[in-house]
């Protein structure tokens, strides 16, 4: 970065600092805040939509240490995911960045760049919710999770494979929605910590619920009554 670029960056940070101080003093209200709020959301939606449509959002998430199991996002759904990420990113930006004073001039990050990063941090949870809906429970093969089911055939003829799939689907359909979600995410490779973050549980609680979910699908129906 040249000296002129550094000077412009320093000036922008100074202006951002003055603006944030004004917003904090007014409790994030008033016409100036309303105008800034509208412009920020509009700019954020434009940028994040382009990131989602191009797939670049996954690289941005990787840079933030949020690694995702990438799945192709249909173009007509990209804006919906981007919109959700921008909304949740704005909540983070407002509550933690401004009200919580996480953002400061000393950190050296321009205000709008901080907001886009907040949207990127919000994207993994938005994406995982979409991925869960998009995949559909009946399309998931939980062979690893349900491997010990006595009536599941893991090797054999094509007919055996059909029997296996029916057994897995039947066991999976009998679960509660919460247990389905837990087993699905675990089968997709998410860690206990990642599942906990998504479902608002501690990693230990996730471990316990997974154990009980596995037991419930392995138990014959008459034992559940």
Structural overview:
The chain is 71% helix and 0% strand. The protein has helices at 3-25, 31-54, 56-63, 75-99, 111-135, 158-173, 177-187, 192-199, 203-218, 221-224. Helix 7 packs across helix 9 (203-218) and helix 8 (192-199) packs across helix 9 (203-218). The radius of gyration is 23 Å and the shape is elongated. It starts with a helix and ends with a helix.
List the helices and strands and how they pair.
Elements: H1 3-25, H2 31-54, H3 56-63, H4 75-99, H5 111-135, H6 158-173, H7 177-187, H8 192-199, H9 203-218, H10 221-224
Helix pairs in contact: 2-4, 2-5, 4-5, 7-9, 8-9
Span between N and C termini?
69 Å
Biggest sheet statistics: none
Strand/helix succession: HHHHHHHHHH
Q: What is the total tally of β strands? A: 0
Average pLDDT works out at: 78
Structural class: mainly alpha
Question: Notable features of this structure?
Answer:
225 residues, disordered C terminus, 0% strand, mainly alpha
Task: Sum this structure up briefly.
The protein has helices at 3-25, 31-54, 56-63, 75-99, 111-135, 158-173, 177-187, 192-199, 203-218, 221-224. With 225 residues, the protein is an all-alpha fold.
């Amino acid at each position: 970065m040249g000296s002129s670029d550094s000077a412009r960056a320093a000036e922008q940070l100074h202006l951002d600092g003055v603006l944030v101080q004004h917003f904090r003093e007014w409790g994030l209200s008033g016409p100036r805040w309303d105008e800034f709020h509208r412009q920020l959301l509009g700019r954020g939606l434009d940028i994040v939509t382009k990131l989602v449509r191009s797939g670049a959002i996954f690289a941005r998430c990787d840079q933030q240490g949020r690694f995702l199991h990438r799945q192709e996002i249909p173009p007509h759904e990209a804006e919906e995911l981007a919109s959700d990420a921008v909304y949740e990113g704005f909540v983070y930006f407002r509550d933690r960045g401004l009200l919580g004073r996480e953002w400061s001039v000393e950190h050296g990050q321009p205000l709008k760049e901080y907001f886009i990063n907040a949207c990127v941090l919000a994207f993994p949870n938005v994406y995982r919710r979409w991925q869960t809906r998009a995949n559909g429970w009946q399309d998931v093969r939980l062979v690893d999770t349900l491997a010990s089911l006595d009536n599941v055939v893991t090797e054999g003829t094509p007919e055996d494979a059909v029997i296996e799939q029916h057994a897995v689907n039947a066991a999976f359909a009998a679960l509660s929605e919460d247990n389905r979600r837990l087993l699905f995410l675990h089968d997709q490779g998410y860690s206990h910590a990642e599942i906990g973050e998504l479902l608002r549980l501690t990693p230990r609680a996730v471990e316990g619920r997974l154990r009980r979910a596995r037991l419930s699908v392995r138990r014959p129906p008459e034992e559940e009554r």
